[in-house]
Each structure stands twice: as C-alpha cells, then as structure tokens.
Write a structure and sequence with these properties.
The complex is a heterodimer of chains A (about 600) and B (about 1200). Chain A has about 600 residues and is mainly alpha-helical. Chain A contains 23 helices and ten strands. In chain A, strand 9 and strand 10 form a beta hairpin. In chain A, helix 6 runs antiparallel to helix 7. In chain A, about 50% of the residues are buried. In chain B, the strands form 15 sheets. Chain B has a 22-stranded antiparallel beta barrel. Chain B has a five-stranded mixed β-sheet with strand order 17-22-23-20-21. Classes of the chains: A mainly alpha (about 600), B mainly beta (about 1200).
Chain lengths: ~600, ~1200
C-alpha cells in the first residue's frame, strides 16, 4: 500500500520526504550519542560519601580515640548506680523488685535481661583492627582503654550469670563453634579478666581526669573485681571455687597501689557537715576524689532527673529503710542499736547525734535545701519510708523533670579504701595502720571517731552479727564494722545488692523492709518544733496536719496500730538460696544454643 | 481589558470556523455516491460480526479483509469523516459503502487487480433526496455541557434508516411509526435509545462514556486502548477527584480506586498521605512508584488540578516494565496538555473552615470534678494525692461553684512564700487550640495554541491555618506548572514542562520540639499531661504558670502550654522543588516512533526552629520568676538538598504483518541517579527572642552533622504485544535493572512478565447469545518484579561519627559508630504476581464492572537473618531469607445513565469499589515458632490476646480462679494487693493450666493466648453518587473499611481516660461512668485504676495486655465528601462574557459511622485516624467556591 501511495505522490513530495528522513536520522543519532555519552562504567559505583568502612579506619591515634570513645557510652549512670540500690535492703520504693519476691522469671527473649553482648563485639572489633595504627603510644593507650572496658563488661556478666562464655574475637555469623560454645567457668573468665585489667593498668596513662579511664581507675576496678570474686568464692564455699585468697590478695594489692601511688584523696574542706553532701550534689565532679564520673551539663542539654526522682511524688517514692538508718553509728562512734528503745524512737530522737553522713543522706529535722535556708521536712508523698533521700539532691533549680545536671560519680577513691580494708580483713592481714589509712579517713572526713581494730574484734555488734551470720573468725568484728562503713558510705551508689550477693546474704532481702516509726494513729510533730507535721490515719484524716499518710492502703504499720511504715506488707517475699544468687539466662538463648546450660534451679 | 480583547477576537474566529464547517457539512450531506460499473462488485456481501461504530478506514479494512478488493486513497482523506454505525449481520458492499461514505464528495475509480482508487471530487454532485413515509422527528443532540454534537448518528432501531446531526447538533429523521426507537450514538458517548411515541421533537443529551472501549489508558512508556489492556490497570479520570476538596493530591485519591489505599497518620496541616497498592508489599514496607509524566516524582507536590488522568498499575504484567521499583504498584500521573485553539482560562477558588473530627466538648473541664477524681485515683496507688489540694481548697471550690464571682485565684502562703493558688475550670483544649481553622485555595490555568505550538500554564495557591490558637501554624503552598509542546513538523514533537513547588510552613514550637517535624507527636503527648482544669492559663498578673503552688515539680503540660502561650518559640519549614522534563518524539517512519526525555528535580528544604524558654512563676509581684528548662533554649537549622536526574529513551514499532495481527514492540533504556546532602546544626544561647541566626547564638552547645547519599539505577526494558483479530491479546513485558544499592556481583535483576487477554464479546458466537452484556473480556497475567527498597549502602559495613552523651572536658565527645555486620549474599527481593481479571460492559456500557483476583508472592525478602545466639553481639545481618504471600481482589461497578425529567435531562451515576488483601508469611527462619516474630503461616497484622470471661465480682473470687499475677502485674505492683479484686478483669484460663500466662510465646506453647484479631484494614470500599439536573449537580462520596481490629494501646488517654494516668487531661467523661462499681457490675471498663493500660501486649497491666473484650472494631464508613454545585445558565454566563460559571459548596469528612463509638461514646477517637490520640486530630471541613471558565 505504501508503494502505491508513493506512486501517487508528486516527485517533489518524495524528495521532501528524503530530506525529512535525513533529519530524522540525524536526530536519532544525536539522541543515541547523548545516551552513550552518559554511559560511563562506574555509573553504578556509588560508594558511601559520608561514612567509612573499617578497612579505612583505625589508622591514626585519632581514629583509635574516636572508636574507643564509643565504649564510654556503656558506662552506667543513674540506672546502674543510683537506682540500682532499689534492689537492695537500702531502699524502699513503691514496688518490690522481683529479686526480692522470688517472682523473677526466666526471660523468654534472647538477648534480654542482661544477656546482651553488643558492647563486647564493639570492643573486640577494636582488637581486630587497632594494630593497623602506626602510632605506638596511641596503640598502647587506647588498647588500655579497650582492655579496661572488656574487663568491666565481663565483670558485669559474671556478677549476674556466674559462668559465661569468654570471647576475645569478633564472632562471624557462620562461626558456629563460637556461637554455640558452652559457658566457660567463672574461674577461667576471671583469669582472663585479670589479664585484661593488668594490661589496662600497664597501658593506660596516669592523667587525673575523672571523665576518662586511667591507670588508677583500672587499678580501682581490679580491686573491685577481685574483692567481689574473692569474697564470692570465700562465702559461697558450697561452690568449691578455688583461689579466693589469691583474689583477695590481688584486690588488696591493687587498692594499695592506688592508695600509695595515685594522686587521689578524700574530698574534705574540713566542714564535716557538708563535705559528704557536696561530693554528690556538686555540679562538677570533685576530681580529687571522684575517679570516674558520668557528667551532665545544662549548657549541653545532657541532663538528668535526679532531683525530680528524689523529690517528686509518683516517681518511685524512694526512701531509705529502717535497717540502713539503724546502721549509722551515733556520732560518738557507738552503735545506734545499742541505744535503749532504738526501735521505737521517733524521728527527731532517732536522727539526733548520729553519724553526720545521715543528715547528708536523708532529710532530717533542720534539713534545708542547698541554696535555701527554709527548713523542709521529709515529704511522705515522695518517699514511702519517710526517710527521704537528700544525697545527690542539688539546688531547687534542678528539681524538674530532666532539669538536673549534677555529675554522677561512678568510681571514687572512698570505694578503694573500703575495698582495701575489706580485702585485708578477709585475708586476716588487716592492721590498725591499714584501718587508719582507709576507714579512719572516711570517718574523719565527717568528724567520726576512728575505727579501732582490736575494739571492733573484741566487741562484736550483735545486730550486725545477726545480719551477717556467716562472718566468722578472729576478724569477725572488724569485718562487720567495715561492712557497716561500706553500706553507709556507699549508699545509693549501686553496691549494696552486689555486696549481699557476694557475701551470700540473700536472705537479708526476705524481710519486709520498714520505714519510719510511729507510735500509733494521729498527728505527729516529727521535727520537734511543736507544730503537727504529719498525720497517720485510717479512713480519713482528722487533723489539718499538712501531710498525711493513709494506713490500710499501700502502707501498713508493722504492729497493726503502731510501728514502722511498711508498704506491701501482704506481698510475700522470698529468696531462694539455691537459685537466686544468679540470674537466669534467657530461654531464647538456650534454645538457640543447646550447649548453653541454665543456671541451677532456674 | 486584555481578556475582553481576546474574547472578541476568538468570537470572530469561532464564527468564521462555524461558517466553514457548515459549508463543508452541507457539501457532504448533499453529495452522492453511485456505482456505475461492475455490478458484481456492488453485490458482494461482507459480514459484520458485531454492532459497532467504525471509522471509514475501518470499514475499508473490513471489506479488504473479506473480499479480494483493495482500496487506494490518500491517507488522510477520511480522517475527519464521521463514524459509521455498523449493524451486525451480512451487508452488501454497496450498501455498506453507501452508508459509510454517502456524504463524501468522492469518486471511485476501478483499476486493475481489483484495486479501487478513491479520489476527492472538486465538483459537488447533485443531491438525490430520499423520501420515506412515516413520522418526521427533529431535535438537537448535545453533550452534557449543553454543547451541540455535530456528526452524531441517529438511527431507527433495527433499520438502516438514519441521519446525522449537523454542526449545531440539529437532526431530522423520518421514522416508520410511533413504535420506532431512535438509537443515538456518537463516539465517546454512551449510546442512547429513545422511544419515539408521540413526540416529534426529541432533544437528546449524550453522556460521556468514560468506561468506553476506545478509551486510551496510559501504561508504562506508552498508551493503550483500554480494550487491549491485559494487565490490572485502573484508570482514574481527573473528574473523579477534582471536585473534592483536599490539600494534596494524595488525599484526594482515597477510595477512588479499589486497593489503592491512602492513609494519613494525623491531621497535621503539613502532613502528607501514605499510599499503598494492594496491601502489604513486603515486611520491609515499600511505597508504590509514582511517575509524573513518566518520571518519578512526588504526588503531593503537584497541583491536583493539573492532572489529566491517573493510571494505577497493580499487577506485575503492567508494572514489570518498571522492574525494580514497581513491586508495590505504580501510579502513573498524566498531566494536562495544552489544547489547540483559543486561549482558555479557568479560575477556581474555595474558602473553607476545618474543625476536629473528634469531639472535644466532653473532656472534664470542671476543676473540682477533675480534682476529686484525680485524688481518688492517686490514692489508689499512692500515699498522697498528686494534686496536693486540701479539703480547705475543696471547700473553696465548692463555694466557687455556688458563687462563680468568687476569685479563681487566691494568694496563700505555701512552702514559705506567697503563692497563687488556682481554683479554675479551664478548658485547656479551647485555650490553646482553635475550633475553626480557615483555609483557602486559588487555582488558575490557561491553555491554548496553534497546530505548531501550544502551551499550558497553571498556578495554585493554598493556605491553611492549623489548630494552634496563639502563634498559629500556617501552611502556604504555591504550585506553578508550565508545559509547552511544539510540533515543528508532523513527524516531530518537542516538549518541555516545569513544575515548581514552594511550601512555607510556620509552626509554634515548644521545649520538646525537634527539627524535621520529628517531635510533633511528642508535643501532643505532653499536651495531655498535668494540665488540670484547676489551673488557669496565666496568673492574675499575667505571668505564666507551669508549676502549681502545691506541687513544685508538676509541670502543666510539661511546660508546652506555657511555651505555646508565650509564643516566642517557633519554627519554619521551607520546601522548594523544581521539576523539569524535556522530551522529544520522532515519528521516524510509519509505525516507528522514538521518544527521549531528560528530567531533573532539584529540591531544597530548609528548616529552622527557635526555642525560647518561657518565664514562669507561681508567686505574685514578679517574684520567683524563672525560665522553664533554659537548657532547651536553642536555635537549630536543617538544610537538605537533593538532585535527581533521569533519562528515558525508547522506541516503539507498530507492525501489521497480516490482516488479523497487530504487533507492537517497544524497547527502551532508563537511567536515574540521585544525590542528597543534609546538614543539621544547632547552637544554644540565643540572644534574641525574635531573630534567627547562628550569628545570634553564643552558647557552648554546638552540634553539627551532615550526611550524604547517592544512588543510581540503569535499566533496559521491552514490551511486545500481539493482537489477533482484536480478540486474542498477548503481551510480554520485561526489564533488566542494575542498581547501585547492591554489591557489584548482585546488581542485575531481570523482571519479566506475560499477560493474555480474550475479548469474548468479539467472538461470533457472542452475538448469538443475545445477552445485554456487550463487552466481556478475560485477562490473566503473571510476572515478577523487584524491590530495591533498601538503604543506599546497606550492603556495606560502615561507620560514621556520632555525638555521644558522654561528656569529656565540657563537651560531648564524638565517637565512631560500631560497624554492623552485613550478609555476603545481599540482593533483590522479588515479587511474583498472578492476576486474573474480568471486565464487563452491560446495557451498552451503562453498567460497567470489573473484577481482579491476585496472588503476590514476595520472595527473598531482606530480613534479619536467622536468629543467632545473643553472644553474636549484633543484629543479625539482613539476608534474603523470607517470603510472604498476599492474596486479594478488586471489584468495581459503575452505573451511568440519564433520563428526561420534565423537559430537562436528569443525569446520574453511581459506583462502588471494593478491594481486599491478606498477607501471610510463607517462609521465615523461626524454628521455635516464636509468635512475636514472623513464622510460616503468620498473617500480617494478627493480634494475639487473652480471652476475657467477666469481671471478678468479689475480692475473694480470685481464689477459685487461675493465677492472674502476670497480667495484673502493674496493679499488683502499684497497689496494696497481690491478686485481682472485685472489678478486675477475669481472664479465661483457656489452656487450663491454672495460670493466665503467655506461655513460651511459641506456636506450641502460647499459654492462654489466641489470635483475637488483625490490625490490617480489610474490605476497603467506596461509594459514589452523582447527579445533575437543570444546572445543579451533587456528588456524594463515601469511603470506609469493613473490618479492622484495633487495640487502643498504652498511653491512650483519649480512649482509656483516667485508666491511663491520673494526671491525664483531655479524657472522655464517659469512661468513669462506664467503669465497674458494685452498683454497675456489667460496665464496659473494669474498676478505675490508673496505669491499668500500661504494660506489654502479653504481660503487664490488665488493660495493657491484648484481650478480646477491649479489642475495638475499627471499621468505619465516612462521608468523605459532599459537593453541591450550580452552574449558571448559559444565558447568564454569556452575558458576563464567560463560558461557564459554577458555584459550589462542599463538605469533607462530614459524617462518620463506626462501631468503635460504641465503646467510645464521647467520640474522642477517630476511627480512621486511630493511633494513641497523641496526635494532631483529623478535621472535617466546610467550604464554598466558584469555578469560572472563560
């Protein structure tokens, strides 16, 4: 048909057609050449332009610093330090942790509830790459940081789970030997940890900066780890773990090195009434004592809610327990529990003439907020026991949610002193000189008399004795006093639960913890200023006391119509000696790795 | 003035054109055609297989196919000839030709080889009139716009007796008797049959046949006749949504096409709609590919009125030409082209007001009532009240209730200072939020041109005011579009189009607001906290209050209300995009066409947010004023730039090797590349409350980060289609894709598809069936698509610098992130789709319906690899290790018709669409059958939960019931109890083990859990009704879903009210009265208890765990749009020198019906929006406007 059409067309038209055809060909050619011009071979090679691959990094000191900086994120802050005491007999709050009720369950989800290993992988990636760096000083320093954090990682693991698998390399997704490895014994793991921490001690610098780890923090960590493990093995004698003594020796030695070689000292301005308080409420950590800190800053908008937590209702309403309040000595160095009727003293009498650390830890009569001279009483709506916390609480401007910016000490010199004394005492090598170089310093900061070794051992406090029934031997008395000192000095710093575990004192968690004592229903003047401050009532309040506590709701009185405030009295508490010293491994992980054995009786 | 001039000239032109055309038609109608030779030719018969309307060229094709005769004539001789109405059956060639070209001044010459040469005659032949006995009918044929339709055919049914309308639409025809039926037809319009009866004047209005067979549908890289489409393609005409009111195109598409699911997360004026096609594409999510005139673009950044039509490619066959990005469907948007002719101008506007769809009137705003309730709830779980108001205060509140003239604020000495104590009844919602939010929209477009060049130009301005009362959020968007098409010769077409989008969004900010709109929902959550109605917005001296006198740490709405009222904190988002496409089309030879285009899209977004801490106090005389969270005071900026470029080049060749076979082949090339860069910076220490610059910030907290990304794809694609006798259709599509998002060796993906169609109604036997079904088409397709919806560098293990919260030496340290492991075999996800479809046209296409069933298997989905023991220490690298299967269907049905009502036409149409899909996992490595993960057989969206038996009616009842400690954990931890008490939920111990527990959360051991519902929307449907009569038009559009389960979830104060928190604001009053008490033992909710809903879905609080009782039926039906319009009569609009004027009023989201309201009688939850209530509410809108054409 086309042919016929062309036949019909005049010749002129045909030549026109050819011209057009030429144009068409040229245009088509142009399009094709345009296409081929953008056809370069690496068009599809789009490598990252604002990210690096590991092969291109770990080359310089700065690379190593930047990578190890990520480890510091793993340091615990509020939750792992302050809030951790909620697990222990130091704190009453508006709930009972499962650790104390026996209601802990085997978690189902793999990797949950402490069985997480991401931080270790991060550290081991460092060890697989750091040798690419030529800067020997940097390699030494930053590998020291990495060893420190690996030891810290495993310390937290063995504390929680006992035996855990040891890994010092990055596990590949197909590396079944490693993935399905059974648990290594804690004896083996602790050996490896000590190797790590020794390398950290050797490699780290000695600069005194509380926001970086250094040789001294590594030594302090070593004393902490070795004391934990040494006493754990000693007191959990049923487990027949060897080497307790060696570990306690290592703990004492590490602590002693800090005491002798390091620049740290206890913070003291000589003002025994506020130095201890200021150490925790200070906006900036006091670096002469605080060896490692989690810093906060209003300017940088890195803030905490510490004041809010301790001063607001509907947070956890935390307060100290009667048991730790009783632990504070009288200011003359005698035991409060040797006071007549110590159990039924009312608040004002109870808190008079006590270890000055008490008034710097909880609100006592005459308490004023920092920066304000108004006396304020414990707020029963923010503290379920009535012993409302004052430790860490900074001035009122930081009271709001996420309005606080005081630094949180994670590791401080006082702990090293306590570690030293305890290790020595447990070893039986403690001398009065050792005590004077440790416990006495802590006491004299707050104006308390020194601890005398022979007195302590000759007059054993019966209350402490009953609290720690498995402490025996010639040093029993001083060990108990060191434990008292440790509990008081380090309250709310996250040690108490671990201490009870290593001392095999789990049964101490079984009691219903008590709060403040009241002789009955009615209104009370708790600070002795002759005005009624708080009414303890059933049904509805009958006075106009500004505060009131209802009995019969959450809170009971320990003797029914009188006694100490006790929350959740009808909820059973229990601690299973054969099981509860360790946490269960998630069910999911045991399913994924059949070689992983569950902890006993879980 | 200018417009008037143009108008006058165009009127003159129009008249001239009229004159020419009239002459032409006269000549045609009076010409005669006769055969003077070879009678044998004249007597040869041909068979017409079915009734149809054909062009003259087609008539010749029919004759050529069935006889030995060939015709030779100039190609364009019959181009403008009217169509011919062919009746089924045998017909002599002579008659056929007479009928077809009787009106042409044409001469036939016989030459050798049975070839007939047709020539145009210069001299008109003498007309021969034909007279018939009977009734003479006359009338006018017009279209729905009352424009005359020249050239329409009018036949007496069952005869060849017919006529054609003239240029003014007039016709006259003499029919046999009054029983005769007139068949009026015109291409592109629905054929109408009219009984003659006693009428002699019959005026007929023909309706557009939008479902017509000849309709052109835009498909990938081309167009097809709808009848020839074999894939699952829905076409949406602009008119289906343009009368609706919606801020963006995305929202307008809701419910328009079955299984085109459009959802909005909240009612934020700056929010854009989410779109999915055919349900869940992949566990990794994924959006449909949206192409604007063939180039990827954003639906929401083009003016809805610039859209000509939209095609939704739903199955693999239609989408596989887009290969790697088309697994979740493709939406092709075709914008309006200029029309040749005079410049046409269209201006429309509307002015509207929006108000929340949720009811905000029933929140408790009585201070005393709220305080009493809050105290009661506080004391249930705490030792003290949260508010701290005393009985003395309550006595005063009572007194104020009696005597409202008493002051609402007293000064008291509290905590050692004089302080304001508030006794208000503040309606916080109406204090900070506007009840009516104005909006307006203006649209103008111009188009016109000559044969050689034409243009289209449009502009839109939309402004919306948001809900904030003080310092309101305002959205202004400007869209400008231009398109120029030049045809320098008949074989070349060159075009260029530009779309410019400019958005400016101003919003108030609060201390929690972040950049990138990121924390807006957090703001909404804060709005509901601690804002007791007791507190007044300000103290009597005008100072702001954040903390009440008694409770120093309770911050009213966490300080956000004070920030809103203070009005110093605000932010602006700007978005500017230029999208330009240049294209050229060459008709190289008959049937061979080459297209090439190049596009770029440059987008620049910038944002700033300025947070100024609000001063507040609860003390008089300017004492105690402090700044709220001064640490959040900062200035932030974000800049984001991207450049996207695309090249398409493709050639299409149409071939007709034999009479019955038509073949089209298309091959092409595509490449696209994109780069983006983003910088974010902030610095604290603003020294100005009103100005925004880093030059005015001097704080130490400086944050600066940047990220960049590039990706590229390159592809080749093809389509081969075969059409056998217009009955059997076969199409092959495919694409080779290379993507930079995969490692070098795994870059290539090949995605082929095949589809077939059978138009049964074109088979000879169909006519014999004598059914009203005039069209019957079956379709089937199968094909495979890819999904490259992964991060640009996901196949690489990389790390970058991040800022830590760890502070060293007064600065947050930077650190290198930990490189994540990647899998070595990282490649494409593939989606295989099988689609079966049927299209029907009944009663001359008055009723059209279509149904598609599909099955989509998505295989090799990238998912977290097989779960490894946790010691691995990282998220398992993604592997192509999971499969899922989606099955579903789409159904649509439409009826369009008209009849005479009085003297005018009543036109109406109604349609219904329905879509559904379900998705199941078919492969997933979960050997333990963990139900919290995917497992083989899991339906996506399924909800596991407990069964509720009843409430415990006594405190001891628990003794004889299974242990519920796990699911009552929150209550037993916070309250004085260790067991459920009267009014608590009694769960059913379905497995009889004496414990209500989730078991091991595995398929083998799921405790008392069972599948209780599914969160996915099922049976999405929409109904449309439209009618027109005497210039009035009405459109009603409703959309809904028939099935969806919803768990209100935690922190949802709008649903749970005081069960959420005792300090929650904005909760429905009815919750309290619907709660269990001994007097109301059959209440819906259990006994009042705060935090009762705050727990996990399996273990936790009694209302927090999923349970059948509190699972909500979130089905809904919503009247999305009602529009009433009135078009002024032509007589009036022409006096105004206007082509047409339409006034309209419209309402959006006016009525909502949902079973959800049964348990939410205060209607504080929107069944379409759902969510936890902490979000900008959806709105209903009333608007009116005008539409002027000139």
């Amino acid at each position: 048909m086309l042919i016929h059409l062309q036949k019909l067309m005049p010749l002129a038209l045909i030549s026109n057609f050819n011209k057009t055809a030429m144009k068409k060909i040229i245009l088509t050619f142009l399009i094709f050449s345009f296409l081929t011009s953008c056809n370069n071979d690496d068009f599809l090679e789009r490598t990252p332009i604002s990210e690096l691959s590991p092969e291109n990094s770990f080359n310089t000191a700065q690379d190593l610093e930047l990578y190890t900086n990520s480890f510091y994120n793993d340091l615990s802050g509020f939750g792992g330090v302050i809030e951790r005491d909620n697990l222990s007999d130091n704190i009453l709050f508006n709930g009972i942790p499962n650790e104390q009720t026996g209601l802990r369950l085997v978690p189902s989800e793999a990797g949950s509830s402490g069985w997480s290993w991401g931080d270790l992988r991060k550290i081991n990636i460092f060890f697989e790459n750091f040798e690419r760096c030529d800067d020997e000083d940097a390699v030494k320093e930053y590998s020291g940081v990495a060893y420190f954090f690996r030891a810290l990682f495993y310390y937290n693991k063995i504390k929680r789970f006992g035996d855990v698998p040891w890994y010092d390399e990055v596990i590949g997704s197909t590396d079944t030997d490693l993935l399905l490895k059974p648990r290594d014994s804690r004896v083996f793991v602790v050996e490896k940890m000590i190797e790590d921490i020794d390398r950290a001690i050797e490699n780290l610098n000695t600069d005194q900066a509380s926001d970086r780890v250094n040789r001294w923090t590594a030594l302090a960590l070593k004393s902490r780890i070795c004391l934990f493990e040494g006493t754990f093995r000693k007191y959990h004698s049923n487990l027949n773990l060897p080497g307790a003594e060696t570990l306690l020796t290592l703990a004492a030695e590490a602590a002693e090195r800090v005491i002798q070689e390091s620049p740290y000292s206890l913070y003291s301005t000589g003002n025994t009434g506020i130095d201890y308080r200021d150490l925790f409420a200070s906006e900036s950590a006091i670096e002469s004592e605080v060896m490692l800190t989690r810093r906060y800053s209003s300017d940088l908008d890195v803030v905490n809610s510490i004041n809010y937590y301790f001063t607001s209702p509907t947070q956890q309403d935390v307060g100290l327990t009667k048991s730790i309040v009783d632990t504070y000595l009288m200011s003359d160095g005698t035991a409060f529990t040797s006071q007549p009727n110590y159990e039924t003293l009312e608040f004002n009498a109870e808190t008079s003439n006590r270890d000055p650390r008490m008034e710097q830890t909880i609100r006592t009569p005459g308490y004023t907020r920092i920066g304000n001279s108004n006396e304020v009483l414990p707020d029963f709506s923010a503290s379920i026991s009535g012993y409302q916390i004052a430790k860490y609480v900074a001035d009122e401007s930081q009271d709001g949610f996420e309005a606080g910016f005081q630094d949180i000490p994670i590791m401080r010199y006082a702990e090293v002193l306590l570690n030293f004394a305890e290790a020595k005492a447990e070893l039986g090598t403690l001398t009065q000189a050792d005590l004077d170089a440790s416990i006495t310093l802590l006491r004299s900061r707050v104006g308390m008399p020194a601890l005398n070794l022979s007195n302590a051992n000759s007059t054993v406090d019966p209350i402490l004795q009953s609290r720690y029934p498995n402490v025996e031997g010639s040093n029993q008395g001083v060990i108990l006093e060191i434990r008292r000192e440790r509990r008081v000095e380090l309250v709310l710093e996250g040690f108490r639960y671990d201490d009870l575990m290593r001392w095999k004192n789990g049964k101490a968690l079984e009691d219903h913890f008590k709060g403040m004592y009241f002789s009955g229903f009615g209104a009370f003047d708790i600070n002795g200023d002759s005005t009624l401050d708080v009414e303890i009532f059933q049904g509805s309040p009958t006075t106009t006391a500004p505060q009131s506590v209802e009995i019969g709701g959450v809170i009971s009185l320990s003797n029914g119509s009188s006694g100490n405030l006790v929350p959740f009295l009808d909820r059973p508490k229990s601690f299973d000696e054969s099981r509860d010293y360790l946490y269960p491994i998630p069910f999911g992980d045991i399913q994924l790795n059949p070689n992983l054995e569950q902890n006993p009786n879980w | 003035m200018k417009i008037k001039l143009i108008k006058r000239r165009s009127l003159f032109k129009k008249r001239l054109l009229f004159l020419c055309m009239r002459t032409f038609i006269f000549l045609l109608c009076t010409s005669v055609f006769s055969f003077n030779t070879i009678t044998s030719f004249a007597q040869v018969k041909v068979t017409i297989s079915t009734d149809k309307i054909a062009s003259v060229d087609e008539v010749f094709n029919i004759i050529q196919k069935q006889t030995k005769y060939r015709f030779l004539y100039p190609q364009d001789l019959f181009v403008d000839a009217p169509k011919v109405h062919l009746k089924k059956g045998e017909i002599e060639i002579k008659k056929l030709l007479n009928q077809s070209i009787q009106q042409k001044d044409i001469n036939f010459k016989f030459s050798e080889n049975n070839t007939i040469v047709i020539e145009k005659l210069n001299i008109s032949q003498k007309p021969v009139s034909r007279k018939l006995q009977g009734i003479k009918i006359s009338g006018v044929i017009t279209d729905s716009n009352n424009q005359p339709l020249p050239g329409a055919s009018i036949f007496e049914k069952g005869t060849v007796n017919g006529a054609q309308s003239d240029f003014d639409g007039n016709f006259s025809l003499t029919v046999s008797d009054s029983n005769a039926v007139l068949v009026v037809s015109f291409l592109g319009y629905i054929t109408q049959e009219i009984k003659v009866g006693e009428q002699t004047i019959i005026n007929v209005t023909l309706l557009d046949d939008t479902a017509k067979l000849e309709e052109i549908v835009v498909v990938g890289y081309g167009t097809q006749k709808k009848i020839n489409v074999t894939g699952a393609v829905s076409k949406i005409d602009a008119q289906d949504f343009q009368n609706n009111l919606g801020p963006s195109t995305g929202q307008l598409l809701q419910g328009i096409s079955p299984n085109l699911n459009v959802t909005l997360s909240d009612g934020d004026i700056n929010n854009e709609a989410d779109i999915n096609v055919r349900g869940i594409g992949s566990i990794n999510g994924g959006q449909p590919l949206i192409l604007i005139d063939g180039v990827q673009g954003n639906l929401n950044r083009i003016n809805p009125r610039d859209i000509e039509s939209i095609s939704v490619l739903k199955d693999a066959a239609s989408a596989s030409i887009y290969g790697a990005r088309a697994s979740f469907g493709v939406i092709l948007i075709t914008t309006k082209k200029a029309k040749e002719g005079d410049v046409k101008i269209n201006y429309t506007n509307n002015f509207g007001w929006s108000t929340p769809t949720i009811n905000t009137d029933n929140f408790i705003t009585d201070g005393l009532e709220w305080a009493r309730l809050s105290d009661r709830l506080s004391l249930l779980e705490n030792t003290s009240t949260y508010l701290g108001y005393t009985e003395e205060d309550y006595a005063y509140l009572e007194a104020r209730r009696q005597d409202p003239s008493l002051p609402s604020v007293l000064i008291k000495n509290v905590n050692g200072a004089e302080r304001y104590v508030h006794y208000g009844n503040t309606d916080w919602w109406n204090t900070v939020f506007e009840n009516w939010q104005p909006q307006s929209e203006h649209n103008i477009n111009l188009s016109g041109g000559s044969k050689k060049i034409n243009f289209y130009l449009s502009g839109r301005y939309l402004t919306r005011k948001g809900i904030y009362k003080i310092n309101p959020d305002v959205l202004d968007t400007y869209t400008l579009r231009s398109r120029i098409v030049a045809k320098p010769a008949d074989w070349i077409e060159i075009g260029n189009s530009t779309n410019i989008f400019n958005k400016n969004y101003t919003h108030p900010a609060t201390n929690t607001r972040r950049l990138n709109n990121a924390n807006n929902s957090e703001n909404w959550r804060k709005y509901t906290f601690h804002a007791s109605p007791l507190y007044l917005p300000t103290n009597p001296d005008g100072s702001l209050i954040i903390k009440g006198a008694y409770t120093n740490n309770r911050d009213i709405a966490d300080g956000t209300f004070a920030d809103l009222i203070n009005g110093k904190s605000k932010g602006v988002e700007k978005d500017f995009e230029v999208f330009n496409t240049s294209n050229v089309t060459l008709n190289l030879a008959k049937g061979l066409k080459v297209n090439a285009d190049y596009s770029f899209r440059k987008r620049q977004q910038s944002e700033w947010v300025r947070i100024i801490a609000s001063p507040y106090t609860n003390q008089p005389n300017g004492e105690g004023v402090s700044l709220y969270k001064p640490n959040t005071q900062t200035y932030k900026e974000l800049e984001r730039n991207s450049l996207y470029q695309a090249i398409n080049a493709y050639a299409e060749y149409k071939l007709k090797p034999t009479k019955n076979i038509e073949m089209t082949s298309l091959v092409g090339f595509n490449q696209e590349w994109n780069s983006f860069k983003r910088n974010i910076a902030n610095r604290n220490g603003n020294i100005s409350e009103n100005l925004n610059s880093f030059g005015l910030a001097n704080g130490d907290n400086i944050f600066l980060t940047s990220d960049q990304e590039e990706w590229a794809i390159r592809a080749g694609f093809y389509r081969f289609s075969f059409n056998f006798s217009e009955k059997y259709l076969v199409e092959l599509n495919g694409r080779f894709d290379l993507s930079s998002r995969f490692p070098t060796g795994d870059r290539l993906g090949f995605f082929p598809s095949t589809s077939i169609g059978w138009i049964i109604s074109k088979e000879d036997f169909w006519a014999k069936l004598n059914t009203p079904i005039n069209r019957f088409k079956l379709r089937a397709s199968i094909g495979e698509l890819g999904n490259q919806n992964v991060g640009a560098y996901d196949y690489l293990s990389t790390f970058s610098i991040n800022q830590s919260n760890y502070i060293v030496e007064d600065a947050q340290i930077n650190y290198l992130t930990t490189p994540q492991p990647v899998s070595s075999n990282f490649t494409w996800e593939r989606a295989k789709t099988l689609n079966l479809g049927i299209d029907l046209g009944i009663f001359n296409n008055r009723l059209t319906t279509s149904f598609d069933w599909f099955q989509r298997d998505v295989v090799d989905m990238l998912t977290q690899g097989k779960q490894l023991p946790s010691v691995y220490g990282a998220t398992e690298p993604e592997e192509n290790a999971a499969d899922l299967q989606t099955r579903g269907f789409e159904f649509s049905i439409e009826w369009r018709d008209q009849f005479k009502l009085g003297n005018s036409d009543f036109k109406y149409n109604t349609s219904f669409v329905l879509g559904d899909s379900r998705t199941f996992i078919t492969k997933f490595d979960n050997p333990n059958g963990d139900i919290t993960q995917f497992y083989v057989g899991k339906e996506l969206g399924e909800i596991w939960g407990y069964t509720v038996e009843s409430f415990f009616q006594s405190d001891d009842e628990y003794l004889n019931h299974a242990d519920q400690t796990l699911v009552n954990e929150r209550i037993t931890n916070n309250y004085l109890i260790n067991h459920p008490v009267a009014g608590d939920i009694r769960f059913q111990d379905t497995n009889g083990d004496g414990v209500i527990s989730p078991g091991a959360l595995t398929l083998d051991d799921h405790g008392d859990l069972k599948r209780i519902g599914n969160t996915n929307t099922r049976y999405n449907y929409a109904i449309r009704l439209g009618a027109e009569y005497k210039g009035f038009d009405i459109n009603i559009f409703g959309q809904g879903i028939m099935q969806r389960d919803w768990n209100p979830g935690t922190d949802n104060g709008f649903f749970w009210g005081p069960f959420a928190r005792q300090y929650q604001n904005f909760y429905p009053q009815s919750v309290v009265s619907n709660s269990w008490t001994p007097e109301n033992p059959n209440a819906y909710f259990p006994r009042l208890a705060v935090y009762a809903e705050r727990g996990g879905p399996y273990e936790g609080a009694q209302l927090g765990v999923n349970s059948d009782k509190y699972l909500q039926n979130a089905a809904y039906f919503r009247i999305k749009n009602i529009t009433l319009g009135y078009t002024l009569p032509q007589s009036i609009s022409s006096k105004l020198s206007l082509d047409s004027v339409r006034l309209y009023a419209t309402g959006v989201n006016l009525f909502t019906f949902s079973p959800l309201y049964k348990n939410n009688p205060d209607r504080t939850v929107d069944p379409e929006q759902l969510g936890n209530g902490n979000a900008y509410p959806f709105t209903k809108t009333y608007a009116f406007g005008i539409d002027i054409k000139l």
